[in-house]
Amino acid sequence: MNKQQPQHIPIDSTNPHSIPRGLRADARRNRQAVLHAAQQLFAREGLSVPLDEIARQAGVGPGTVHRHFPTKEALYLAVSIDQLETLVAEAAALADGDDPAAVFTLLARMMANGAENSAVKSALAAAEFDLRIVAPEVATALTGHVSDLLNRARTAGLVRDDITVEEVMALVAGAFTAIHHANTQTDPGRATHIAGIILDGLRPRY
Fold first, then answer.
1. I need a labelling partner for 187 at 20 to 30 A (CA). Which of 7, 92, 118, 155 fits?
2. Residue 169 CB partners (closer than 8 Å, separation 6+)
3. In the UniProt record, does the keyword Cell membrane occur (predicted)?
């Protein structure tokens, strides 16, 4: 089945993962506050939380939320892309460092992010939205950083020689499912434990 195309999502149609053009500074701050509040509420209370409650948590009026995100579908997508962009920034910072084990730090953060946002990711999957299609530049940037960090760890002898970046990204996606299946989304300790088991599989076998 073909993935749905993102054109009907009310985000900048030429670059759907960017902040809409022409926003004033206060409007940008409001938009980011809404995204932050939505991410927290979706993680804590599920996807049924009303948009008006998101507005209250963000400290803005309901009309502000509706102007930026006329539908919940648009908000789900924007929350996911915002989180992905945050991961790219974290990955870039790790890539600029010299820690040979940084790939484990990044992958653990990616798995934790997936656990925190599992409800939103499930909603997008059900609607057949693929972030690799909706926000290809961001997804490609994250994969590129993972690849660089993986190569650094491999050179240092910290990961298996037979691991590819495609396999690593597949393991991260699988970790979301494992954490969700174990009902540990609201238990960071158990979610971290599951992520650790998965990451141990990347280490060399002696």
1. 92
2. 143, 146
3. no
